[in-house]
Amino acid sequence: MDKYLIKMPTKTNLNGDQKPAALKGTPKTIDKQKEKNTPTEKQKQEDDYVEKENTPKLRNAQIAKPASKRKNQDTPTEVKDIKNEEDGENPPKRRSARLTRSTRSMAEEGTPSPEKEKPEKLPFIKYKGAIKYYTENHEIAASADDVIQWIDKQTTLDVVPMAFDMEWPFSFQTGPGKSSVIQVCVDERCCYVYQLSKLKKLPAALVALLNHPKVRLHGVNIKADFRKLQRDFPEVSADPLIEKCVDLGVWCNEICETGGRWSLERLANFIAKKAMDKSKKVRMSKWHVIPLDENQLMYAAIDVYIGQVIYRDLEQREKVKLQNEANFKEQNGDAAFKAVKALGETFLDKITQVTI
Predict the structure, then answer these.
(1) Of residues 191, 130, 133, the one with CA closest to residue 165
(2) Which alpha helices (DSSP H) does 90-218 contain, by range?
(3) Which residues face 354 on adjacent strands?
(4) 191: left (phi > 0), else alpha (psi -120 to 50), else beta?
């Protein structure tokens, strides 16, 4: 029977594994076929199959691939012809040899530096004068009376400038508090600080000092201070004080022909060439609490001291400007004066000749 059995070929699945064909026949023949399909024989068959596939010819055939042909690509000569045609239709624009303003300035002055100019460091104001500090009603009245007597003794002066400023507490919840401090300065060697926290009404001597006919009150945003003082102390009338006061920022714009709104700190930088320490810790401190500490007293004194310094400087500049304008008109006439004035001349410096 064995010689009539046909051995079926093995099948391979997609993974390359060989599956033996179904065994047919009697039990004896099936046992013989199982013995032939032992693991050793299977391993030999797989090794033979791998060796056949790894022959040099088969490897070269698998690796070698036909090179793809170039399609629809122009030859170098055709590309050059296309470029020449485009250049003929749209020739390249020639760069103008004329120098622009920016290139001319760079050529004359050199390439501008990318670094910004560092701001000038100014020295801080150091006040070494006296600070007279009063909190009681009678003390404030006596001090104001002493200042009035000193003003009356200045017989050679028609106007006595007096720096004026105020301080009050501020809260982001409740807003500005009641006027707490008034500081004045008529002489750079002494500043007066009056704390109003205990007062329900301003002393008559202090009101008389503010309304003295020879006193010219000055400060920055001083009109708003007078209006607030009137709201907090109705015995003070703001209108007469506003009429005779001088706002240093407005006066600076008139003399120096500048523009914009000024703060006391900026005026100190521009006019006096000094820096002010406007620390928020002191500026927003409790000005209504008695007594004031040293930092608060120095802050209040410096405000009116530097105000008096700025006033003196602007006063001197105004005199020089008026004198220069008069001399120029006398030498060159009104027409030349108007022409030069239209060009932005401030006449803060002396000008003797002009060419138009």
Answers:
(1) 191
(2) 101-109, 137-152, 204-210
(3) none
(4) beta
Separation CA 197–CA 325 (nearest Å): 49
- Asked if residue 188 lies in contact with residue 126, where contact means CB atoms within 8 angstroms, the answer is no
As a whole number of angstroms, the distance between CA 124 and CA 313 comes to: 18
Annotated binding site for Mg(2+): 165, 167, 303
Higher pLDDT, 78 or 149: 149
Tell me the CB-side half-sphere exposure of residue 58, using CA atoms within 13 A: 7
Model pTM score: 0.66
Least Cα distance to 262 among 191, 213, 310, 302 occurs for 310
C-alpha 293/C-alpha 74 separation (Å) is 91
- Domains of the chain, residue spans: 130-315
Tokens 């006019």 belong to 271
What are all long-range contacts of 12-19, with beta carbons under 8 Å and residues at least 24 apart?
18/42, 18/45, 18/46
* Listed ranges 21-30, 42-51, 85-94, 313-322; the one with the highest mean pLDDT: 313-322
Fold (topology level) of 130-315: Nucleotidyltransferase; domain 5 (3.30.420)
Tokens found for residue 11: 């099948």
pLDDT in tens, 165-191: 999 999 888 889 999 999 999 999 999
Task: State the binding site.
Answer: 165, 167, 303
Measured CA to CA, the distance from residue 146 to residue 148 in angstroms comes to 5
Q: Which residue is it, tokens 């004329």? A: 98
- The helix-helix angle for 294-342 and 248-256 (nearest 10°) equals 30
Residue with more model confidence, 228 or 335: 228
